[in-house]
Specification:
Blueprint: H1 9-19, H2 23-34, H3 40-50, E1 53-54, E2 60-65, E3 69-71, E4 75-76, H4 88-91, E5 94-97, E6 101-109, E7 112-115, E8 119-121, E9 126-127, E10 131-133, E11 137-139, E12 144-145, E13 149-151, E14 155-157, E15 162-163, E16 167-169, E17 173-175, E18 180-182, E19 185-187, E20 191-193, E21 198-200, E22 204-207, E23 212-214, E24 219-220, E25 230-233, E26 237-239, E27 244-245, E28 249-251, H5 267-278, E29 284-285, E30 289-290, E31 293-295, E32 298-302, E33 305-307, E34 312-316, E35 326-330, E36 334-335, E37 341-345
Parallel strand pairs: 5-7, 6-8, 6-9, 7-10, 8-11, 9-12, 10-13, 11-14, 12-15, 13-16, 14-17, 15-18, 16-19, 17-20, 18-21, 19-22, 20-23, 21-24, 22-25, 23-26, 24-27, 25-28, 29-32, 30-33, 31-34, 32-35, 33-36, 34-37
Antiparallel strand pairs: 1-4, 2-6, 3-5
């Protein structure tokens, strides 16, 4: 009855936010919304456009992240903050840092990684989407990036790394031995392809102003349509023994115009979303460190949060038939110890 008498979508959103801590009341409110007197479908869609609920977004394992990190495990936007306010790189499951990001060996990020400065991943790390670095991007041996890499400086891949899409960097790009890149490689300066590495997919390798070096046994494949691979260099191309470019298309001494990846600071957009998170009533205060724990749905707050190594955190949805969320608001930084495990159990999928 209270919400039926409220005036306007923004007022309804404000009331929903105030009631969100009481799951039973929220259920009753939603039932009321589905059966308003007039234009139920149109009104409900307008309301949902303003009150967006996005469930668990990303988990980080074994990562040590710089101080300006913004960690978004859930985003519940108020009337003035919408999902559309965030760029794709940040709106997808992501860790965003206004400074640098450094992840220890064996780290795993379910979504993407965006940093205004450098990104460094330890050996055996995994990024489930794209990687955007305002400065350099460095992957340890055996690391994986599922989509693309864009770097404001150089990009270096350790041996046996895999990138599922293109790599674009303003400086040099070095691909480690026996690595695989499923996309174009475009460097503002030069490119070095390590021994036994494979470049497949769209398969152009371009060193805009410097040399391309193809290591022994490295391969640049052609795509399925043109069945040819291109290697372009601003100066020379060095092809080591047993290196192979499909159809042999090598173009040295060709300066190629290069547009550097835009060094975007998403802090304004992400901060707007974070303000919506911080405005949510706090259910639980956390200390500065956390050990093995079971955490139930709700809003958690800490000034800073550090976990020890080999800790298991269990997020227990308590078999609620409806979707549930965990919101973690940290004022400064979040630092995970190595081999951290986060298990989501008894939660509606």
């Amino acid at each position: 009855r209270w919400i039926d008498h409220a005036q306007g979508i923004e007022e309804h959103c404000r009331i929903l936010k105030s009631l969100a801590r009481d799951r039973v009341v929220l259920k009753l409110v939603l039932v009321t919304l589905f059966y308003p007197d007039n234009s139920k479908g149109t009104y409900l869609m307008k309301l949902l456009k303003h009150a967006i609920v996005i469930p668990l977004l990303s988990l980080v394992v074994g990562a040590s992240v710089a101080q300006d990190i913004i960690f978004i495990p859930a985003l519940i936007a108020a009337a003035t903050v919408s999902k559309q306010a965030l760029p794709d790189e940040v709106n997808s499951p992501a860790i965003y840092s206004g400074a640098a990001i450094t992840a220890g060996a064996g780290s795993s990020v379910v979504g993407g990684v965006v940093a205004y400065q450098a990104v460094t991943l330890g050996a055996g790390s995994h990024v489930g989407a794209g990687l955007v670095a305002g400065a350099g991007a460095t992957l340890g041996a055996g690391s994986t990036v599922a989509r693309f890499i864009r770097a404001g400086d150089g990009a270096t891949l350790g041996a046996n790394s895999v990138v599922g899409g293109p790599i674009r960097a303003s400086d040099n790009i070095a691909v480690g031995a026996f690595s695989r890149v499923n996309g174009d490689i475009t460097a503002g300066l030069g490119v070095v392809i390590g021994e036994g590495a494979e470049i497949t997919g769209e398969n152009d390798v371009t060193a805009s102003t410097a040399a391309v070096v193809l290591g022994s046994g490295s391969t640049v494949y052609g795509n399925s349509e043109r069945n040819t691979g291109f290697v372009r260099a601003g100066t020379y191309v060095t092809a080591s023994a047993y290196s192979f470019v499909q159809s042999g298309t090598i173009i040295p001494n060709q300066l190629t115009p290069f547009t550097a990846p835009i060094r975007v600071n998403y802090q304004t957009q992400v901060s707007a979303a974070q303000r919506a998170l911080r405005a949510m009533p706090i259910d639980h205060e956390l200390g500065s460190s956390i050990t093995a724990s079971t955490l139930y749905p709700g809003v958690y707050h800490a000034t800073q949060l550090v976990t020890a190594a080999s800790v298991t955190l269990t997020l227990d949805g308590q078999n609620n038939p409806n979707p549930v969320v965990w919101v973690f608001n940290m004022d400064t930084y979040l630092s995970f110890g190595g081999s951290l495990t986060v298990n989501v159990v008894n939660a509606h999928k």
